[in-house]
Amino acid sequence: MLEDVVKRTNQNAKTKRGRGLKVELGVLCVSLVILASSVIARLDRESTHDDLTDVDQMNALAVVRDAYLEADQAARSLALSTTEEGARRELETLEQQTALYKGALTNLSTRLSGDPAFMRLQSNLSHLADQVRRLRDKGEVDRIEGMEQFLDGERPLLRQQIVADIDMVSRNDESRIE
């Protein structure tokens, strides 16, 4: 009897989280389309060799955003994973995407180091990478429990700040280039 109640409670929590994931995924897709259209418009306006460096930098920012969003999706999928193989696959994706956005941030750091939004972005993404590293080193039960606590607690505010900082860095960079 008690086990049935616990199972139903867990299923209800996963269903609610699943619905929220669909909404968040939709918002992320719209954000990606907006960023892609901004980069495409920028490519159309610029044609000189000097501007290619700027385009490469904007592409690096798009890599940061895309890799972060993929890492965020993998983190949510990891928390919902029901098999060890699925959890291992999501953790691998999470680590790969984290390495990808860290590399892109390094490429951007020399040019954008004076931008406060970029500094916040670096700090928040570094904090996220530290969380991933801590969770990776835990056992399966502790990892899942820690990931659920992170997803429900700190992650929503951190995610909101990261997305806002990426948008702000993009706008600041476009203003500087023009």
Topology:
Layout: H1 2-45, H2 49-80, H3 84-112, H4 116-136, H5 140-152, H6 155-177
Helix pairs in contact: 1-2, 2-3, 2-5, 2-6, 3-4, 4-6
Beta-strand residue fraction: under 5%
Query: What spatial form do the alpha-carbon principal axes imply?
Result: elongated
**CATH secondary-structure class:** Mainly Alpha
* Beta strands, count: 0
Rounded to an integer, what's the Rg over CA atoms?
18 Å
Uncertain segments are 47-53
What is the structural class?
A: mainly alpha
Biggest sheet, in brief?
none
CATH architecture: Up-down Bundle
Number of helices: 6
Average per-residue pLDDT, rounded, comes to: 75
Q: From the 3D structure, determine the CATH topology.
A: Four Helix Bundle (Hemerythrin (Met), subunit A)
Order of helices and strands: HHHHHH
Tell me the distance between the termini: 66 Å
Helix proportion range? over 70%
How many domains?
1
